[in-house]
Amino acid sequence: MITLKNVSKYYYSKGIIASGFTKINLTLNLGEFVAITGESGSGKSTLLNVISGLDSYEEGEMYIDGKETSHYTENDFENYRRKYISNIFQNFNLVNSYTVYQNIELVMLINGKTRREVKAKVLELIKKVGLTKYKNTKVSKLSGGQKQRVAIARALAKETPILIADEPTGNLDSTSAKEIIKLLHDISKDKLVIIVTHNYDQVEKYVTRKIKMHDGKILEDKVLKDTKKVTYHEEKKQNYLKVFEKFRLALRNTFNIFPKFILVLIVYLFVVSAVMMEYSFFKKQLFINETSGYNNFFQNKELTRIVIKKENKEAFTEEDYKQIKNIPHIKKIVPYDYLLDNVVYLHDENFFYYQGTINDISTLNKKKITYGTLPTKSDEILILGSPNDYALNSLGKEIIGKKVSIEMGNSSDMKKTYTITGLIYDEELKYNENGYIYGTQELVNDLKFVMNTSISQLKVLFQEEYHDSNSYDIHYKIIPNDKVKSGTCLISSDFNMTCKNETCKNYPLKIEVNNLYYQDNLELKVENTYDKKNIKTLLDDYDYDTYNGAIFINQSDYQRVFNKGNYQSSIFVDEVKNLDTVNDTLQKGNLKTLKIKDTLVTSGIVEALKIVRAIVTAILFITLFFIAYFVVRIILKSRNTYFGTIRILGTRCKDCKNLLEIELFTTSNIAYFTFILLLILNKNHILNLSILSNVINYLKLSDYILLYLACSLMSYLISLRFSRKIFKNSAMKTMREEV
Ligand code: ADP
Ligand code: MG
Fold first, then answer.
1. Could you tell me if the CB of 44 is within 6 A of ligand 1?
2. Do both 533 and 625 map to the same domain?
3. 36: phi then psi, degrees, rounded to nearest 5
4. Per-position DSSP letters for 171-182, written without gaps between them
5. Strand, helix or coil for residue 610
6. Which residues keep their CB under 5 angstroms from ion ligand 2?
7. 316: domain CATH number?
8. Tens-digit pLDDT profile for residues 677-729
9. Is 362 within the bounds of a domain?
10. Hey, is 462 helix, strand or coil?
């Protein structure tokens, strides 16, 4: 079966050549039970390692079934080992974190069997070595003798023709030793058993041949018993670890040493959270840079705001708002959004003065009112402001019941007097920020009316000539009055000069209204003309000298052109990251949109900052990779033994790498999803880690996917580097380094 012709083995280390053994000639056959003895350092182990294909040789030729092996590669020897050799070691080389059952199962899985196929066989082998009681016990808990029994069962499970045992009883007491030798003999029928021992007496009963070594040479080679000739039937088909079993083993490896799993998980969690936080910080910076610009048109520059108009320029209907409200991620709708951009002033006759924007009380989302109650009537208001604002602070509770007027920047005032019924302090507002004034829907409508009149351009078409009507000039100024009949108007008798027969009565007069949002017009008929004498009877309380030149129209006509629906509204998105999605949805619904974010002007420095930040992020990622790699390597150092063991058992390098990859990939996935779970808990306020808020606020689904891929890649690279390191050396060396 195995023939050595003048084979020598040398060790080179640090320039010194040591000889393992020299010019050995030997033929070993199936059916033999060979004992090798000799003093320590005589080359016994070296000889066994060469025969096992665990070590190379330098001189001579070794024949396996008549085939030369001097040209064999590492790979060829791996195949040879898988097919021919089972090793039993002095120090057992079992997987300590596996149970007895798992250790024996392992070698059969490696040889391409499935879990179901091997079950009966494994149990039978366990029974054979007398460990049925311990089948589910972790090997680390067994005694030396028991461990060696497991090793023997495992060697049997491999079903190879050659069994090589290097001092299998070296670590055992004499009773266990005797039992082990007997066991070896009992199971070794038709096999070639080579056993190295210090204690020849123990084996004497069974051996068929005795070889004595001294100083790297064979001193004595004596056949003690005749053995019958056994021929070896080579099994042609080679089977390797099945994919499914590979995953099962990798998962077992992930969890079976729990402290190791936790440590690696912590490292990966650290990596995942660092990557996530750094990336979200990067996004936040980008975002801040992009949005710290300036614009003149909008007072309210909240980044979540989108201004909308209908494509067909019509006013919004209730149905429109209902539909918009149904779009996901929309937090609130402000139907008349001019309110947002127009600061109004509250003041009383004394020194009270406060400024803010008007809001509909139904949009108030704070539940706790600091003082007072919610406004319910059209002349009641509530103030929401910073507790550090001077006006609010100095009055405190006293503010409730205060009567104020509302003044709007552009010379138009609200006519009524308003009562402050409630005050809310909002800690998040700064003392110099505009406050919020909440009123009823009616107040908002009143305001809208006043606003519309003040922002509209009015033109009067009379006698085929256009005349501007504005608030500075009394000529052609439009004044509503209840005494004028609807559809008619009263004009000054001064106009009569331009009309036929000096009377403009029944002449048509058209008023055109034009503003940002809409155009409208009123077609009226001149009902009468007023002069110094009749003005008091036609209209109440108007002084001719002051009002001469004005056009008086009916109150409801006036209302009709100014009390309009909403042509422009604003919506607010829940979070900035959803801005684009919502914007797209709105545009698909035939709306013209304007993201406030896009109206902000930015400077070129943003681009430069982007690049610097990207570089910093990249450097951090690389540093993290190396930190993670070295820590994982230290934690997984014990894996050297594991991989050395399974390679000696015949696992291909490729399968070992896969096992490691799957193990680390699983852990990195668990870390990633643990982090996601933390985010979810935080978002739902079950946890409260403010450190995670950036991640929640600035990352989108696509970022999560990207970062998932990045983390997976990182775990793959770590396992790649790690396996390159482990498998650079031969199986034996890998073992030796650790054992
Ligand atoms: P035994 O098993 O009979 O005690 P070994 O086969 O282990 O002896 O060793 C034989 C010789 O080879 C010894 O002189 C030992 O110093 C040398 N040797 C064994 N392994 C190595 C090694 N990895 N590197 C260098 N020399 C070695
Ligand atoms: Mg030895």
1. yes
2. no
3. -110, 125
4. TS-HHHHHHHHH
5. helix
6. 45
7. 3.30.70
8. 999 998 888 888 878 887 887 888 888 999 899 889 988 988 888 888 777 76
9. yes
10. strand
